[in-house]
Amino acid sequence: MSDVTFSVNESTFKAVFNKAYPGKKLNFNESGSKVLVWLGVEGEIHIEGAGGIEFEDGNTFLLKELEIGWDKLILRLGLDVPNVEIGKFCLLRMPRSIPFWGDAPFLGDECLVEFPGVTLFTGKPDIGPFKLNLNAIIPYIVTEIGGRYFIYINKEKDSSGKFYQMVHAKPTAVDVDPISISDTMGKLPAIIQGGIYYAASQMIKYIPQTWMVDVVLSFLGFPTLTAFLLDLLDIHDDVEDWLMDVLNVSIGIDNVLYQLIFQEMLESKELFKIEDPYPFIDAKTLDVSDFGGYKTTPAGSTFELPAITAPVTDAAVEFAEDNMFIRFNFGI
Amino acid sequence: MLNLNIFSITGVDSALLQNNASVIHQIKDAGEFWIAIYNAASQIEKRLVVQVDEQAKSFIINITADDLPTGKACCCTENGILVYTLRSGGFVHLKGSEDGCFAMLYKAGSEDAIWDSRKLDAGDFFAFMLLRPGKYSFSNRISGAECLLTVAYPDPRQNSKAEGKEAEPVRLRTEYDANWEPLTIKPGQGVVVEVNNPSRLYCDLREVDDGPEDLIAWKNELKRNNIL
Q1: Predicted confidence (pLDDT) at residue B137 exceeds the cutoff of 90
Q2: For B5-17, what is the mean pLDDT?
Q3: Interchain contact, B187 vs A218, CB within 8 Å
Q4: Of the partner residues B156, B162, B192, the one whose CB lies closest to the CB of residue A223
Q5: pLDDT tens digit string along B158-202?
Q6: Which residues from B are below 8 Å from A197, CB to CB?
Q7: Residues of B with CB below 8 A from A125's CB?
């Protein structure tokens, strides 16, 4: 049996955990792509704390709901307008009934000469990147994160140079579910419409006259540039679905959050610490007049009584019976 | 960037082929020929040799003033001139260029052109397309034949992705002393003319069409709703 045993229950542990982990804002900046579309996302989150903690027997615990707060979410989009070819048609066909080239690799009615046509856009008709500021829908982003952590105790020196037995919780696994968005206030369509309007105005800068816009639209098969860009971005009626697809599939935001949170948790400070050597009584300076009966009196008028401490040995931490136990012996 | 070059062309002249036009000429007889291609703007002449025989594998030669090497830049022959081979009865396809071009065909050793693209003749084909909506005069400046050609304004309200497929080209023939019926095409729709008599085919814009009157109101309404 150990000299000392501390016991901490789940609710106290959770309270300590939630005081230890909320920390600095975590920034990320990631990009991805879809066909003809470049995507980037800038975000900022902070860890708010654990919604539920469940001890497992041994040295691991489950963090059922890691609550995070979103501070910023901005989507950046860039478009490569497809280089549409127009005016290609068959100028001359192989006559059906005149096999005047016996070994010709052409069938009757096959196109012999094609009119070359032209490309609608030259160079790189890229648009953007333009931003969709999604901060307004942050309250409607649902992020479910869980994880398994292990605890350990280790003798370490703190910044003041003193040694402690420190109890840490480190992640062994963090699970981040794809985020979901429930835009109950319907703010997302207006945000996207604003971004598309900007992109369309960028595109229209390349097309100096109105009739040219309409000729281009006739080749693209859309009534407006807005409709064309929405189709290019694959945005249809359900903008929430589109945004979730962009964030979860094209950007892989669950993986981004996983790495961010995992790294932050690895760098986090201790949850509990015990001074080592363990102090029983601090050092004191006593006046000799406080002493009586000593045969040998101190040379001066005061006397230094040293601190009484004991080194901590055999320190261990584990979970059992819904409690965390920290046990150690005194090396005296 | 929009290809403004092609949008700036508002006419066609078979004697000066721009990017929206091309000509086909058939070479029936075997032998060695020279083709001289002239860039109208720079007056740079480019030459190539065409060897025509019954055994050649190529049935078509596609040439344009823009991408032919000049002078000694080519190492295909001793004097740096490209040599093509063509099956007897094969076609030379002269594509238009940005500055406009024309070509002449010579029998090797002769200085008299046997064909000049500025004066098309029976057996040639001329093709073009137009983008600028409006009314054009389409004529044969040699025979005097003429017709009204309309490039219809593409009303964007009628556009749909499903109908994005380009229209088939309109095919015409030139005949002595015969006018064509008025013709309406879509922007970018091809016109192929089978030439049966000496022709210089010309198309010039007489009246622009900037769309139906109610189109502007429709667009303004969309713009008020942040739709362009």
Answers
A1: yes
A2: 91
A3: yes
A4: B156
A5: 888 766 567 889 999 888 766 788 999 999 999 999 999 999 999
A6: 226-228
A7: 1-2
Task: State the complex-level ipTM.
Answer: 0.89
Q: State how beta strands A323-330 and A312-320 pair.
A: antiparallel
Residue to test with chain B: of A214, A222, A234, most B Cβ within 10 A: A214
Please answer whether residues A253 and A247 qualify as being in contact, where contact means their C-beta atoms are separated by less than 8 angstroms: yes
* Residue numbers in B near A86 (CB within 8 A): 129, 166, 188
Chain B residues lying within 8 Å of A222, measured CB to CB: 156, 159, 161
Query: What does the alpha-carbon distance between residue A74 and residue A43 come to, in Å, rounded to a whole number?
Result: 6
Chain A (108-127) residues lying within 8 Å, Cβ to Cβ, of chain B: 112-113, 115-123, 125
Give the per-residue pLDDT at A124: 60
Indicate the helix (H) or strand (E) that contains A102. Answer: none
Per-chain mean pLDDT for chain A = 84
CA A17 to chain centre: 20
Please report the residues numbered 264 through 303 in chain A whose beta carbons come closer than 8 angstroms to any beta carbon of chain B: none
B56-65 confidence digits (pLDDT tens):
888 888 888 7
> Which residue type is seen at B180?
W
How do residues A128-176 score in pLDDT, each as one tens digit? 788 888 888 888 888 888 889 999 999 999 889 999 999 998 888 888 8
- Supply A272's token pair: 């509990």
Residue labelled with tokens 């598309």: A196
